[in-house]
Amino acid sequence: MYLGIISAMPDEIHSVLDSMTDVTTTTHGNRTFHKGNLYNKPVVLVFSNWGKVAAAITTTQLIESFKVNKIVFTGVAGALQEHLNIGDVVVGTHLYQHDMDARPLFKQFEIPIIKKTAFKTNATVTQQLRMASEKYLESFSNNLDTTFTKEFGITNPKTYYGGIASGDQFISSVQKIEELNISLPDALCVEMEGAAVAQVCYDYKIDFGIIRTISDKAKENASIDFQKFAKIIASKYALGILKIFLS
Ligand code: SAH
């Protein structure tokens, strides 16, 4: 059985792929899958594409075409809470689709038919990811170039553990953050894929875990922070955390 690794960042894909051995690359449904070994463990790596629908298609293809029993998602996200900083890591415990709203037929955020407002991640995978992230961030100063970490004000990055909100919007306004803080007070960060992947894993009974590195504060300058951060830092985080997770 393979571990499926879905990443939302091309930079993360490149850094993980560079560390893989015995790679076979195939394409299905406009997605490129890399099967091989990562730190001596069998994995299939794929770029999620962006947005909920695209990520759900990728996940379904991954499950249908490869023997995966577990999926780990890595990517970046905007912070929804003041105490989170750029460079912190959120390990997801449950995921919401913040743009799902079929009121008055169903309550806000409820996914029709399956009647769920949140998808829980697998407890074992999540615990392992949490430990891997904590360990990685402990040795953080040894792993990153401080010129960049200073530029982003990353001094003491931490691992947080909690809810993630996903939706088909890049959030870059204080007003939207405030709305989300009211409607989903336990969501730590916002992104565009996680809960869609979680829904597919729920239907297929696949163990699912997710880590999101905070790339921006989802405020007006989110897109500027985002671009710089993704290239320089996020890709190193993903590989560093996966290395400990797989060992
Ligand atoms: N502007 C980018 C587009 C990336 S889409 C580019 O052209 O390269 C944004 C990706 O980052 C998605 O994977 C999403 O999940 C995540 N993300 C990071 N910050 C976000 C935010 N503030 N709101 C929503 N998604 C965010």
Bound molecules: S-adenosyl-L-homocysteine
CATH A-level architecture:
3-Layer(aba) Sandwich
Q: What sort of overall outline do the alpha carbons produce when their principal axes are compared?
A: globular
CATH class: Alpha Beta
Kindly identify the CATH topology: Rossmann fold
Rg (C-alpha, Å): 17 Å
Give the assembly state of these chains: single chain
- The helicity comes to 25-40%
Low-confidence segments, given as residue ranges, are none
Strand content: 25-35%
| H-E string | EHEEEHEEEHHHEHEHEH
What does this structure look like?
- This protein has 247 residues and is of the alpha/beta class.
- The chain has helices spanning 10-18, 52-65, 123-138, 140-143, 146-151, 174-183, 194-204, 222-246; strands at 2-7, 20-28, 31-38, 41-47, 68-79, 89-97, 119-120, 159-166, 187-191, 207-216.
- The chain has one domain: Rossmann fold, CATH 3.40.50.
- S-adenosyl-L-homocysteine (SAH) binds next to strand 5, strand 9, strand 10 and helix 8.
